[in-house]
Write a structure and sequence with these properties.
With 156 residues, the chain is of the alpha+beta class. The chain has helices at residues 18-35, 40-43, 91-104, 126-131, and strands at residues 10-14, 51-58, 63-70, 75-81, 109-115, 135-136, 141-143, 146-154. The chain has a single domain (10-154), classed as Aminopeptidase. Helix 3 links the parallel strand 4 (75-81) and strand 5 (109-115). Bound molecules: coenzyme A (COA). One of its GO terms (molecular function) is acyltransferase activity, transferring groups other than amino-acyl groups.
Length: 156
């Protein structure tokens, strides 16, 4: 029987410095462009300037994950954990840190456009968001050539 991976100590922080923002972009490039094949023109856009960025960092200083949330309407996106660190319970605290941040700014909900491609080789993150308490909002739709599902988390 395989042993579950050990999770090193970590923190989730708002990325403030240019170096921290660059680390977020590096993880996104690795996951969305190199791994999932998105076009760089789609992945990196002006929206980043309107978002708060989060970085999950191990005590060693190595960064493992990132996410962003729009300052205006609580839209979560660009959620990514580096491949080697998935499945060890890092995605959940990353998103919980986003929830805490949005709540602290008076937000009532966080929503996302989850990839929902259940075909072989497709990316379906809806199960991840559902485990975290998100519910579907509306129907499936195509965005940037991929099936998506809007999902929302109501902040208590
Ligand atoms: C989606 C992603 C962020 C999850 O990160 P992770 O660190 O592996 O997630 P966690 O280990 O914290 O999992 C949290 C829970 O969600 C579940 N889960 C994780 N990924 C899942 C998936 N694809 N489908 C269903 N459930 C999933 C876990 O089993 C866990 O459940 P539990 O709390 O009951 O044990 C990660 O797989 C990733 O970066 N994927 C590539 C980028 C991506 O597709 N992002 C989403 C874009 S919409």
């Amino acid at each position: 029987m395989s042993k579950p991976p050990t999770r090193p100590p970590f923190t989730v922080n708002v990325a403030n410095t240019p170096e921290e923002i660059q680390e977020c972009m590096d993880i996104r490039k690795e996951v969305f462009i190199d791994e999932q094949g998105y076009d760089i023109r789609i992945e990196t856009n002006d929206d980043d300037a309107r978002c708060t960025h989060f970085l999950l960092v191990f005590e060693s200083g190595d960064a493992a994950g990132t996410a962003r949330v729009f300052k205006t309407d609580g839209q979560l996106g660009r959620v990514a954990i580096r491949k080697d660190y998935r499945g060890m319970g890092l995605g959940r605290p990353l998103i919980e840190a986003v929830h805490a941040h949005v709540k602290s700014t008076g937000g009532k909900e966080v929503w996302c456009q989850s990839q929902a491609d259940t075909k072989p080789g497709g990316v379906d993150a809806t199960g991840f968001y559902r485990r975290l308490g998100y519910v579907n909002k509306g129907d499936l739709y195509i965005k940037e050539g991929t099936i998506h599902q809007d999902m929302v988390f109501y902040l208590a």
